[in-house]
Amino acid sequence: MQVRISELSTRTGVPVATIKYYLREGVLPAGERTSATQAVYGEHHVERLALVRALVEVAGVSVAGVKELTAVLDAGQPLGEVFGVAQRLVSAGGQPATEESSARVVQLTSGDSQPVSDVGAAMAARALDGFAAGDRVPSETWLRTYWEAAQLVARADLEEVGRRPGTTERVRLVAVGTSMGDVLLAGLRRVAQAQLTRTQLTRTQPEEES
């Protein structure tokens, strides 16, 4: 497939002006020159624009962040390295967590060693600080259950990634899946809470006082 920039815009839904901006920023590789002022673009450009749109519009990554990720991708770095950059870019920032919460996350997820994902560990530790601020520190049983559930979801994530063809499509799924997967999981958790609460309250409804 070889198309001009106007056709590339039509096919991808990305405005011509935006495509030109991505070209200037180096996020989108240059097309094949057919003259001093004209170029044609191929399927690789369609795939790259789909990745960029997912990062910017769905995951909320800045153009600078997209440029960082695509540079690692284009350099042919190992897939694990690319995934690590993608996870970091789409994960929430925030203030540093307390040493106590950080240590608790390390102990929960890695024993005495450092967690594989510094980004994830920092997010979890900040959540524990939030619990502590509300005087509601989670029990070890509750945390252990969350960790087991997280491992189950992570395995499902990797299995889904493995079903996708090509590195770009896999990175795209990681980028979107990390941000939207958080939303999906939170929504399903609330549905499950509502169902279980309704069932348990119905089953254990106390008798009305006479």
UniProtKB/TrEMBL annotation:
Alphabetized UniProt keyword annotations:
DNA-binding
On whether DNA-binding is a keyword of this UniProt record, the answer is: yes
The answer on whether this UniProt entry bears the keyword Coiled coil reads no
**Family matches, as InterPro entries:** DNA-bd_dom_put_sf, MerR-type_HTH_dom, MerR_fam
Q: State any single GO MF term.
A: DNA binding
Coiled-coil residue spans: none
Give the HTH merR-type domain ranges: 1-72
Identify the PANTHER family for this entry. Answer: HTH-TYPE TRANSCRIPTIONAL REGULATOR ADHR, REDOX-CYCLING DRUG-SENSING TRANSCRIPTIONAL ACTIVATOR SOXR
Protein name stated in the entry: MerR family transcriptional regulator
Source lineage: Bacteria, Bacillati, Actinomycetota, Actinomycetes, Propionibacteriales
